[in-house]
Specification:
The chain has 143 residues and is α+β, with helices and mostly antiparallel strands. 24% of the residues lie in helices and 24% in strands. A 5-stranded antiparallel sheet has the order 5-6-7-8-9. Strands 1-2 form a two-stranded antiparallel sheet. A hairpin with a 3-residue loop joins strand 3 (46-50) and strand 4. It is globular, with a radius of gyration of 14 Å. The N and C termini lie close together (12 Å).
Length: 143
């Protein structure tokens, strides 16, 4: 799939520095995605949340480094708002977030985080499973 407005090309060293700065370990397939794309706007962007929630549109994948939609900023914004084993990796135009599991049973999994159902517990009650990994999620995006 084609992407537009991706960030600058990353090296493994850039990603290791990012992980160190945020005290996280990114999953292998997501690292590969960052090395290939480093964020940006996918040419196909519609995806299904669930049968009850329907479809939405992916706005942008966040990137690392000198990019407008910088993953650093979004990690700060959502730090205590979602379970600690997830990070935000993209958003939709309505302020919801596409999240990546970075540890435990959900490592590599992609979830939709609904901000309108957010609660003070930062649990998974407002999260919907989307895909087993970043590439399965991207493959499911459609017009």
């Amino acid at each position: 799939m084609k992407f537009s407005n991706s960030g600058n090309k990353l090296s493994l060293e850039n990603i290791t520095e990012f992980e160190s700065k945020h005290n996280i370990k990114l999953p292998e397939l997501y690292i590969r995605f960052l090395l290939e794309q480093n964020g940006g706007y996918p040419e196909r962007s519609t995806f299904r949340i669930s049968s009850s929630q329907g479809n939405t549109v992916l706005n942008v994948f966040f990137g690392i480094g000198d990019i407008y939609d910088n993953l650093d900023d979004y990690l700060d914004i959502y730090e205590d708002r979602m379970p600690s084993s997830f990070i935000p990796i993209a958003d939709d135009p309505g302020g919801n977030v596409i999240c990546l599991g970075i540890g435990g049973d959900y490592c590599e999994n992609i979830f939709f985080w609904d901000h309108e159902q957010e609660n003070d517990d930062a649990d998974m009650s407002n999260m919907y499973f989307l895909a087993r990994n970043i590439y399965e999620f991207i493959e499911a995006l459609h017009d």
